[in-house]
Design brief:
Number of strands: 11
Largest sheet: 5 strands, mixed
Strand content: 35-45%
Distance between the termini: 31 Å
Shape: globular
Strand order of the largest sheet: 3-6-7-5-4
Length: 170
């Protein structure tokens, strides 16, 4: 029975496009323009780069999210944090990603995927190290029976001294 339900859902799915090319963040304007933070305070390059990912489900409680990251023995050691489902609203003081990053002493790269209500909804990369070559890609729009929405990916190079590490967030 579950297989039949899955087959019905898949049969109701339609890929309408192939998505877009990788675009430099600086070339994206308008409501979906990315938000990039300044370089963070210089620090020693670690032997191990710690990366965490967290779906913050709209990220409304920026103070709580930052406090939870700072209090966690695991998350507090992350050099790079990938966030999904984070939003930004013009009436708030900066993007939610920027407010969380500022509390953690990190820089950020927020890439909105779509306009939602009177703001935007997207993904973000927070980093203790400088970010270079920020790119955004619109993913293929998939018309499905449930949860059809514009989605995106973002890529950036994390600068670790002379080395660069490419990070992609989807």
């Amino acid at each position: 029975m579950r297989a039949l339900a899955l087959l019905v859902l898949v049969a109701c799915t339609d890929v309408r496009d192939q998505g877009g090319p990788w675009e430099p963040a600086a070339e994206i304007t308008g409501e979906l323009a990315p938000d990039l933070g300044p370089p963070p305070v210089e620090r020693a390059v670690p032997a191990t780069l710690r990366v965490a990912t967290w779906n913050v489900h709209f990220g409304k409680d920026t103070d709580g999210i930052a406090a939870n990251i700072a209090a966690s023995p695991v998350l507090s050691t992350a050099d790079v944090i990938l966030m999904q489902e984070i939003e930004a609203y013009p009436e708030e003081a900066g993007t939610r990603a920027s407010r969380i990053a500022a509390q953690l002493g990190m820089t950020w790269f927020y890439a909105p995927a779509r306009v939602e209500w009177n703001g935007t909804h997207g993904i973000a990369i927070l980093s203790r190290f400088p970010l270079e070559t920020p790119l955004v890609k619109q993913l293929p729009y998939i018309d499905q029976a449930w949860n059809s929405r514009e989605r995106n990916a973002q890529a950036v190079e994390v600068v670790l001294g002379e080395a660069r590490v490419r990070i992609v967030n989807i």
